[in-house]
Amino acid sequence: KRVVSTQSTGVKEVFGKVAESYDVMNDAMSLGVHRLWKDHFVKEAAPQPTYKCLDVAGGTGDIAFRLHRHMRNINSETSDIVICDINTEMLKVGQNRAEQLGINQHFTWMEGNAEQLDLPDNTFDVYTIAYGIRNVTHIDRALSEAYRVLKPGGKFMCLEFSDVPNPVLSQIYDRYSFDVIPVLGQLIAGDFESYQYLVESIRKFPKQDAFADMIAQAGFSVVDYENLTFGVTAIHTGFKL
Amino acid sequence: AVVSTQSTGNHGWSSVSLKLAIKDLELSEASIGMFKLGGAEIALHYDQSLNDDLEDIMAQQQDERQPDAPEVPIAHFLKDAIKTRLEMQLPHYERWSEGLALILDPKVAPKATKQFAHLIDDIWFYAGDKSTNINWYTRRASVAAIYGMTELYMLQDKSQSFRRHGLSLTEE
Question: Of A28, A40, B115, B165, whose CB has the highest number of CB atoms within 10 Å?
């Protein structure tokens, strides 16, 4: 009995450590601002307690917990939130966190691929994806899936790193991205390459207008975006009409 | 997006009307997020749809004009256009002053001003204005002023007949 419990505790600790470095990395890279971006994102999403929400690529629960809190502040009776992620480890971390906070009964954790969701059509009022879509191989498929699972009138919201148009700021941002972030990754997470890859993948992701076009292509209407912190992050929204 | 102005009779240019319309159309409640300016958007949409109607009327009149018919005097044309456009607001007359107040709010005013400027442009276009000099600006400013004054007068007019507001338009 004791052996089993130490084993599961050990495993939990490892997961805990990995997730911790992710959190610390997020804080270090964005100087804590990612929390503000996420807060703003959820405020814009403005989920009402009756809304059915789907958070994709939200394994560790950052967005989902905020969505829940927003709904709870309006009414203690809240709808369940479905969280889908391709990575089971991240989902487990999120689940553990939810349990520690005592709110796990409000979430459904699903392993799945954003490009092919195992969910029925016309189900959700709100679809959110935060810092996940740039990792999707076929972004257009993820957008089509988002369109499919949303109810008519439903809202699509994406929070993602984007383009800094201001030439002076973008130079500073580039230097910080390419010179500082991978080094932080090495020091904090022991992983230089991953964070170098991250920074490069951000540059490869379509700029605000191009991404807005892709969203419209998937069928969404009233597509718009809002830049945060001069474009370092952008919120894109669209409606299924 | 289709927004029903039917419910404005009961609830005005408000988010309540929007919510009712959304419910009628059986859309997710999340779609209210489309209307960033809330009820003012209904007022804007209503205003724009009347502008579109006026343009249709002016375009049709132009098509139907005989090629050798005499030119309509510009002042006469302007008076007709403004009168026609304002009379379109009669069905929702009781509530329009609220709508007007809403779209003059600083958040909405830029959009409203742009719409209004387009309306005046259209009216001048069909009046036959081909100016490419400073007259372009002065003409629009003057018609805009006349339209504005007439509209305000009309909104305060409590008489049975609305013929009086036609007379307030002076010949230039």
Answer: B165
A54, A60, A167, B119 from A66: Cα distances, Å? 13, 12, 34, 45
Q: What order of strands is seen across the sheet that includes strand A124-130?
A: A107-111, A81-85, A53-56, A124-130, A150-161, A233-239, A221-228
Lookup result for tokens 């305060």: B156
Three-state secondary-structure class, residue A127: strand
Asked if A153 is an interface residue toward chain B (Cβ–Cβ < 8 A), one would say yes
| A51 at B interface, C-beta within 8 A | yes
Only one residue has tokens 């500082």, namely A180
CA A149 to each of CA A124, A158, A215, B15: distance values in angstroms, whole numbers, following the listed order: 6, 15, 15, 26
Please name which of A36, A218, A12, A175 lies closest in space to residue A97, comparing C-alpha atoms.
A12
Largest CA distance in chain A: 62
Yes or no: say if A151 and A125 are a contact pair by the CB < 8 Å rule. yes
Instruction: Give A165-211 pLDDT, tens digit per residue.
Output: 999 999 999 999 999 999 988 888 888 888 888 888 889 999 999 99
- Is pLDDT at A237 greater than 90 in this prediction? yes
Beta bridge partners of A228: A233
Considering CB atoms only, which of B1, B25, B28 is closest to A154?
B28
